Amino acid sequence: MFASSVVAALVALPFLAQSASAADCTRSYTIQDGDICDNISANNNVSTYQLAVTNPTIDGTCNNLQPGQTLCLGYEGQDCQTTYVVKGGDTCDQITGAHGINATMLWANNQQINADCTNIYIGEVLCVASEFGAPPAPSSLPITAIPAGATPAVPVVSTSSVVAATTSVASATPTPAAADEDDDDDLPFCDEL
């Protein structure tokens, strides 16, 4: 008797969880043919992070959208609708300055942004509200890497390029000894001052 009750409860649990989260959903969107996550986010004032968190069935590359499927855009009390679409050259400092918010609030509402803010990409939709409005992060945070095919807002310079540039500048700079040999004659000695 106990075992069958436990099995019945386990079978019913996903349906209870689904109906509880469906009841909390305040906005929804029906997927159309050709939709991609960033366009859905931009057109409906929902951040990329919020769309991912409220719809955990969407895969990390947003390749499993099915036309006719309904997505939740926000939960009651956790629905940031003040958004900004990232453009080329944007940095977190520029975004926070333009929207009059502090960096803490930007990261609180967009928990997929890494500490250096090097993973924002062109077309990504960020919550730029001045108060906390995003859903809490799940135990497995949505992907923090720039999606394949997306263009970083600020191109990342590879370390090998920096090393090569530093090496070429260093080899072109004259050594102090060579510079001193030619120019010392016109410098005063300490006792001449």
UniProtKB/TrEMBL annotation:
This is LysM domain-containing protein. Residues 179-193 have a biased composition (Acidic residues). Pfam families: LysM. Residues 27-73, 82-128 form the LysM domain. SMART domains: LysM. Residues 1-22 form the signal peptide. GO terms for molecular function: chitin binding. Residues 169-193 are annotated as: Disordered. Keywords: Chitin-binding, Signal, Virulence. Residues 169-178 have a biased composition (Low complexity). It comes from Phanerochaete sordida.
